[in-house]
Design a protein that fits this description.
The structure is a homodimer. Chain A is mostly helical. The first copy, chain A, folds into two domains: about 1-75, no CATH class; about 85-235, Tetracycline Repressor, domain 2 (Orthogonal Bundle). Chain A has ten helices and no strands. Chain A has helices at about 35-50, 60-65, 70-75, 80-105, 110-125, 130-140, 150-170, 180-190, 200-205, 210-235. Chain A is elongated, with a radius of gyration of 21 Å. Chain A starts with about 35 loop residues before the first helix and ends in a 5-residue tail after the last helix. The relative contact order of chain A is 0.10. Mean pLDDT of chain A is about 85; it is low at about 1-30. Chains A and B meet through helix 6, helix 7, helix 8, helix 9 and helix 10 of A and helix 6, helix 7, helix 8, helix 9 and helix 10 of B. Chain A binds a DNA duplex through helix 3.
Chain lengths: ~240, ~240
DNA sequence: ATTTGTATAAAACATCTGTTTGACTCGTGT
DNA sequence: ACACGAGTCAAACAGATGTTTTATACAAAT
């Protein structure tokens, strides 16, 4: 009895109306008129990030978005449809971070590529506008919903392959070398550790994601990792 | 509407009977008689680790343990009471790992202390009998239940402080130095990355937790980290 | 033999869950 | 003027959920 799969994307009768988007929705008379649909997206992003897909109720989302209970089913087919759309924006944001890191590293020596990658990744991870999206993704890691597969292919794999390329360049091995993969895991894991989490908070790790603190952390990770990678490179290659 | 707090440990009428434990429960007549209580503990440990506190239903647990729906409330007061007890065994296991790591490092130079710590931690993390317990804990990191505080104090803090001591010895700083704390985070994050997770699985990271693979991974983490720590130690100390 | 305490079981309870329904309000196109 | 579709709403639905109740079986103590 896991996360309740709805195989077909748009399940029921209605909710296909929104096929006709872009025909100037214009404003309607009802008071505020802030496009209920986008309010639902915005509100649910935060709620899903805070507590996960299953632990957030549609009633809660709708209350927070000042919308009717039926709004989610009307606009997104069902709860999973809404979640899918929220996670798609997360995927896009992550891909944008990937591309930015790639661009920043172009023409640079591998050491500098790694430094810039870590910094940009960390900025993307902790920048206030993206932080909820990344927490969302972190949730998928522990409680995969049917959306995870698409996300891994579109976001994680390109990122890991890029990192593997850098590391391979640094230690002079194939990107599929076990040593390379372990180094990639080491770099990546250090980065995501800086996502806010309740245990760190209880330990008194008061890491404030200000630009300068983020740079500091990025410098640490890059320096730590470059030394680590070089050390690994000095050892004999394995199968 | 989070995980449903039950402030008092043993909430209702019954379930305090088990105060009188140890008076030889003996066996009763009903067929198998395998101590329903311990069956519930065993079964729910796996279920909670797989899907988290909230996503597992008491009916499911009871079905898997071949017990009545009321069994949980009878033996543990309520669902959270069962969870609390399961997590207590996890805490104990983790503390045992801590102690083992400490003993193994006694009288060793700090480099060797770190190597042994990482190995023992990883063994504890991935040994088949403890693996579910650690996944359980990993869940608390993302979705804290009321049980988290006790766990952090009893397990995580001693461990982090021990690691901080080693690192401080290596780079010659105070255990509260920012550089030290960042190194601790680096070491710890690399270790927990080796817990099985769906994203790694989808990426084709087929890490089998055999003893030799675990040793391999521990060697990597220790070597990588020692080089990293030394590099950090070469830099000027910060506030 | 009776009482007492422990353990189990089936059924019921109250609440919460995602979803659906049917009515109603508008603007727009004819 | 009219029909139509888009969007919203209150109410209801069916199923799941944690918990409680009531009844019963049994062993040990009295």
């Amino acid at each position: 009895m896991t996360t309740r799969v709805a195989v077909s994307a748009e399940p029921r009768a209605r909710a296909r109306r929104r096929a006709s988007r872009g025909t100037a929705p214009a404003s309607r008379s009802t008071g505020d008129d802030q496009e209920t649909r986008s309010r639902l997206l915005k509100v649910s992003e935060r709620l899903f990030a805070d507590r996960g897909f299953k632990d957030v109720t549609v009633r809660e989302i709708c209350r927070a978005a000042r919308a009717n209970v039926a709004a989610i089913n009307y606009h997104f087919g069902d709860k999973l449809g809404l979640y899918r759309e929220v996670l798609q924006t997360a995927t896009d944001a992550m891909r944008a971070t990937n591309d930015a890191a790639r661009r920043a590293g172009q023409g640079q020596p591998p050491e500098e590529k790694l430094r810039r990658y870590v910094l940009i990744f960390l900025q993307g991870l902790l920048a206030s506008n993206y932080e909820t999206l990344h927490r969302l993704i972190h949730r998928e890691m522990n409680d995969p919903t049917p959306v995870l597969d698409a996300f891994v292919e579109q976001s994680v794999r390109p990122r890991v392959e890029y990192l593997a390329g850098i590391v391979a360049e640094l230690i002079g091995g194939k990107p599929t070398d076990q040593r390379v993969l372990r180094c990639v895991a080491s770099v990546h894991s250090q980065s995501i550790t800086y996502l806010p989490n309740p245990i760190a908070a209880r330990l008194g790790f008061h890491f404030k994601p200000t630009p300068s603190q983020i740079e500091e952390a990025a410098r640490h990770i890059a320096g730590f990792s470059l030394a680590g990678i070089r050390a690994v490179g000095r050892k004999k290659s394995e199968v």
